[in-house]
Amino acid sequence: MLKTILYIALGGAIGSVLRFLTTVLVSKFWANHFPLATFLANIIGCFLIGLFIGILEKNQVTDSNLKWFLVTGFCGGYTTFSTFGMENYNLFQNNHSLLAFGYIGLSIILGLFAVWFGLFVSK
């Protein structure tokens, strides 16, 4: 268990640093109101989680430290949106479309409300 946690922590640290560097790089070339760095990190993270899971499944390495490092650690540190994307993809693939749409809608609406409420409580 401790070894797994260390793999996740290492991947998460690398993902978090790369998320920061994505913001630094994008801000050098983009000065607009649209949050391009976050958007790109989310899309890149979704691509990477799909790529990593696909490669791991193709090579029958679905329960390994590499999966914990890449998927949970790195992608989780880079963006949790990648996990959100993968979970919804799985719901759609398993014919749970209504549940997927509910998850998407509730996540967005309640997420925005939670941000507002956190700001409200802090004042």
From TrEMBL:
Signal sequence, start to end: none
Family matches, as InterPro entries: FluC
Keyword Zinc applies: no
Compartment(s) of residence: Cell membrane
Keywords: Cell inner membrane, Cell membrane, Ion channel, Ion transport, Membrane, Metal-binding, Sodium, Transmembrane, Transmembrane helix, Transport
Any Pfam family: CRCB
Bilayer-spanning residue ranges: 7-30, 36-56, 68-86, 98-121
Modulation of this protein's activity: Na(+) is not transported, but it plays an essential structural role and its presence is essential for fluoride channel function.
Broad class of the protein's primary localization: membrane
Bilayer topology annotation: Multi-pass membrane protein
Keyword tRNA processing annotated: no
Domain of life: Bacteria
Catalytic activity line of the entry: fluoride(in) = fluoride(out)
The family this protein is said to belong to: Belongs to the fluoride channel Fluc/FEX (TC 1.A.43) family.
NCBIfam families attached to this UniProt entry: crcB
Protein name: Fluoride-specific ion channel FluC
Gene: crcB
